[in-house]
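Appendix B, example 12.
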Amino acid sequence: MANRSADYFLTIVVPVFNEEESLPRLFSALSDYKRKASVKLCVLFVNDGSADNSLTLIKAACEQEEGFFYLSLAMRCGLTGALKAGFTAAASPWCGYIDADLQTFPEDFELLLPHVNDAQLICGIRAKRHDSLSKKLQSKIANKIRRMVTHDGFTDTNCPLKLIDSKLAKALPLFSGMHRFLPALTLLFGLKVAAIPVRHQERLQGKSKFNLFNRGLSGLCDLLAFVWMRRRFVNPQIGEQNLQ
């Protein structure tokens, strides 16, 4: 899709759902990083059916800041749907992903960018997590189960700081929980993944949208969906053609 993001090397996709408390700090952090980044980048906020003042704040920020854009989904689709909408809309060679709660640092994209010639997906790995003990335990168990099933070898696929080649991002199959399986899906396509340690901090504003139910039961259902999809996966390769 041709749009203004084609003028940039990187489009950072930011899914937003009821984050009005976090947004002012997020806008400031992304604006500051955009000005000193090593590549020309834009930011694409994807409003995922927020019921608070998030969309109004996003629109105001996009009017004030060059290179800030937004999409607003007609109905809530969840994190996977918001990410996929952003990836599909981005016309830049690379897409980035960061959460609106700002528990990772935009500046740490600079740790991932040197690897764009070596891999099609570059994942941040939270070197020192600042989460509650229960959240850490839930994540540790979930990651262990995921690795046993997917064999992707990654210890932290949920880190909300990633870079992905836009061609791969647009080719990703859409299913609930897709964001948890980006390394496994990339490997399924026969492409390369890199993992780079990044910083992590506590959520300072707003509330987490995840709990034991949507991390546990929902995550198990998503894992079963991935297993089914992997068994049915088809990735045709073109041998000859005369279209060009």
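The longest strand covers residues 10-16. The beta strands are 10-16, 41-47, 68-72, 94-98, 121-126, 161-165, 193-198.
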